[in-house]
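Whether sequence alone determines local backbone shape is best considered at the level of individual chains. Part of our work consisted of pairing the sequence of a single chain with a tokenised description of its backbone. This step matters because it turns folding into a mapping between discrete strings. For completeness, the protein is quoted in full, as a sequence line and a line of structure tokens:

_____
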Amino acid sequence: MIKARDIDGITALHLAARKGYWGLVSYLLRINPVIPAEGWTPLHEAVEHGHAEVMAQLLAMNPNLCFAKPKKNPYYGQTVLHVAIERGHENIVKYLLTIRPSLIDITGEHGRTAVRNEKLVSLLLAQKPSLINILDDDGRSPLHDAASIGCEVVADMFLALDPELIHGVDNQGTTMLHAAVGSGKSKWAKRVCGMIPDALYACNGQQRTPFRLAVTSRSFEMIEVLKWD
């Protein structure tokens, strides 16, 4: 029964790690020291729920667990570093980068680096500023993602390190202005338009300009911003 899995591949060790039951995890590992190391692991459970002691306990048994990638959503293709950042567990992120610095280079779903999450960006950039220049499988930089959600704080961090990122265009012809218009945040779109005014006339892969995107979405405030630029 210790090794038994449910329909989702979850074992008793997964459940103990999820709850942070350090003593139970120790007991289960004494009975069966083999930790499931494929897909969604007990380590992912411990990290997702912020159980640092259990995380350290599992990594002591198998340090390579931190490289495992789930094959199902919501964390498809993401290492425990991605999960820790997504959940905002700063202490765990620091620990993982201390024991396995190479984790910062591993990409998740669609070739995206961990820096794409707005949480703890400054921590990651302090360790490796060049992350901002790594494009994903769709040719998008981390700035595309920040622009798409209108996260100006993160976008400004990226642009401070490399102002040329504002001119990036992905494989579908999406400019930063297209992305900014898609965010629905008119003040942010106005800022981006001021930085790359020529992008106002650029067409994406669907032959749509940023202005047409605003019209299609019926964003009257965005239309007002773009029509005067």
In short: Residues 22-31 form the longest helix (10 residues).
